Amino acid sequence: MAALNYNHLRYFWAVAHEGNLTRTAEKLHVSQSALSIQIRKLEEQLGHALFDRNGKQLLLTEAGRIALEHADTIFSAGGELLSILGDRPGARRQILRVGALATLSRNFQMAFLRPLLAREDVELVLRSGTTAELLHALESHRLDVVLINLPPVHDAATSWISHPIAEQPVSLIGTPAHADHGLALKDLLAREPLVLPTLESSIRIGFDALVDRLGVRVRIAAEVEDMAMMRLLAREGIGLAVVPPIVVRDELANDSLVELAQLPELSETFVAVTLSRRFPNPLARELIASFAPAAHDPAG
């Protein structure tokens, strides 16, 4: 077999991480047809198709996933070589691609990423979407880690690894005017209108079970999918929000909102999902290790 053409491999590597031929061609300043030719030559040399084409979207085949793992290692080692022998400490820039559930607390996401934010040798690529969209991107090697609030279903056909990284209590949050009532939890739930997560969320499932056990009939002011919108509605005073305090950390700190009661046996979990890979992204492993629940307070 002829020696591997690393130019072909680099083009493949760039397309595999971007997931789109047109965008990659624009970033590399080459024509789309030239990029396609380079990838086709690599496929011919390896004897395997590296992508399945689904319209404009490119999905890695099994051979493509194997090739990408090796390409990640090769080009990471090349960057390290330039950094060490080229006497350029800033020459090696590591990239971490993070996907987060669109409704996930922004405060939590910032807390997770904070160890890397000031590093000049790191470039972060941040995406948001549904759980299904993010896991698909992870499986296609277009993301290195996905942040969600429920572990995905795992079976023999999937190679996801779910890392529980935090568990936050859930509370009733309202404006300072609500604190004047001095009501017990059951009375608060029965009297005040509520801003609740939507039915499919883990918090809502636990909350519905709680009010059923308490025998309380609640009045719903709004059902909201996005945590940021729940925070805004709570600030407007239209009702008490059922959220983890980390979502409204800044408002609690400046006393524009107050925590009226912690909801017993109710919490939200935060999960980092990675793919079982021969060469995992070291930055993802570093963040997950530093964010171990026993060693880190995500609200800090």
From TrEMBL:
Top-level lineage group: Bacteria
This protein's UniProt keywords: DNA-binding, Transcription, Transcription regulation
Coiled coil: none
HTH lysR-type domain span: 4-61
InterPro entries, A to Z: LysR_HTH_N (IPR000847), LysR_subst-bd (IPR005119), WH-like_DNA-bd_sf (IPR036388), WH_DNA-bd_sf (IPR036390)
Family: Belongs to the LysR transcriptional regulatory family.
Name of the protein in question: LysR family transcriptional regulator
Taxonomic placement: Bacteria, Pseudomonadati, Pseudomonadota, Gammaproteobacteria, Lysobacterales
